[in-house]
Each structure stands twice: as structure tokens, then as C-alpha cells.
Amino acid sequence: MPASENPTGPATVTTTVNFVVPPLDGARAYIKIIPDPVTGEHEKNYSSEKHAVEMENVRGTETQYSLDKVGFQWIKSPVRHTSFKDEDEVKKEYYPESVDLIKKVTGASEVVIFDHTFRRNNPVQSGETKQTRPPVTQAHVDQTTKASIARVHRHIPADEVPALLKKRFQIINVWRPIQVTALEWPLALCDYRSVDVENDTLPVALVFPDREGETLEVKYNPNHKWKYLRGMTPEEAVIFKCFDSVQDGSVAVFAAHTAFEDPSTPADAPVRQSIELRALVFYD
């Protein structure tokens, strides 16, 4: 049976995931986004370490997981746009479909998509382009609270920002396979309820030549509960939070995530191709 026709797979698999190790001197963690022109390396003052992690395959029980409960939610969502080759077409055709999807799932009143990323795994490529970025193999959350508020200021007209920040807002990602079933390097997400937010995360400054962003890297904790939906098809997507301004303990605030090497991936599986959108999500 071809790999693409066997999506069920084992109930759990064990793999390794990269987790952050904070700077030993206690300094603020940072990474320079522009690589060194000589070495090609990104200067940073922290490191990573690998840990064995059990990933639960939720195929068949995926409807038990909801955005506010755990930070992520899988959905059946066939889309009209399927080529994912032309940037302008993606923005013109796929963005509106995704806005409608986020509104339907969340009940939000306004959704502003501010970027997207293609990932196409190619182990032998040298460097990367916007169309050929590899999967990210580090447990992380895209935005901190500070960075999330900065995103609103960056992408929303200045006169609208104060009113929007008084109400609930989120940063939500929509991730889906494109062209082929995602059996190779699938995406795993960590149940927010298993995360000790204060002790398990590390803010990292993303240093650009003209500005700074900030992301949350994740430290290893054996209590984390990692989930994935094996064999996701282009007709399926996962919506997950990178930030929620409601932080009173009533809802999940974010979903740590990472790509991982699944030992149950068949040898004939196609290389992973995916698209992820990032959106500001506002409520009345």
C-alpha cells in the first residue's frame, strides 16, 4: 500500500526534539537573524539540547482538542486554492479562504493575515528561498506578549490600535500540508495544560538590522504532552494559538510546536510540503 494511503499509524512514537538551553551567564537570550557573511552562522548566546519525547498520534480522536482548551484544533477544510506557487495568487485566493475559516472556528470579528511561510523539505539543498524553507525542528512559540502587541502596531493603522488592544486579541496560525500528505516531518503541538509557562519558556530577542522581534523558545519538561495528527492531507489543517490576550487561566494562551522526525514514516513517503499563515485575530 502506498504511504499516502495509510494515515492511521501507531498510537505513539518516540522521537527526539530540540529544546532551548538558556545563556549560562543569565543574560537576555538573543539571535541575529542575518547570518554571518563568512561562516553563514547566526550569532546567538544560547544553545539547544535534544531530548527523547513521546508523540501521541490523535488520528481518530482529534475532535477532542479545541483551541481554547489546549491551544490547537484540527479541522477538515478543503480549499479552492491548491497550487501554492504564485505569491500574489496565494494572497488573493488563499488568504480570504483562511480568514473565513478562522472566523468560523473562533467567532472573531476581524482577521488580518500578516504573513505566510512555505516549507518544503529538501535535505540536499544549500541555503533556502521563500519557497524552500525547511521544517523547524526546535520546540518554540512564534510570538511573546511583547512581540504580539508590537505586531498589532506594525500591521494595523495607528488610529485603530488603542481600541483594538482594549479587547481580546490573538495571534493564530493556520498550518496545512500542500500537494501531498504530510507523513514526513509532521507538525507536533504541545497541550498547553501540560506547560509550566513561567519555567518552561525563554524569551529570545530576534535581532534584525533595523528592529527587534521576540519569540518564545521552550525548555524541556518531561510533563509536556505532545500530539500530532499522522498523515494530514491538504484537505486538513491545524489552527493553533501563538498568543491570546486572555491570560487569566480560563483558556490556553499558546501552543508550543515543532516539526519532528517520525520513525513510522514510510520509506516511500513524499517530502513534506506545507504552508502556514499568521494572523491577528480581533473580537468585538
TrEMBL record:
InterPro entries noted in UniProt: AsaB-like
Record field: transmembrane: none
GO molecular function: oxidoreductase activity
Similarity section: Belongs to the asaB hydroxylase/desaturase family.
Listed PANTHER family: BLL6449 PROTEIN, OXIDOREDUCTASE AN1597
Protein name: 7alpha-cephem-methoxylase P8 chain
Organism: Ephemerocybe angulata
Native organism taxonomy: Eukaryota, Fungi, Dikarya, Basidiomycota, Agaricomycotina
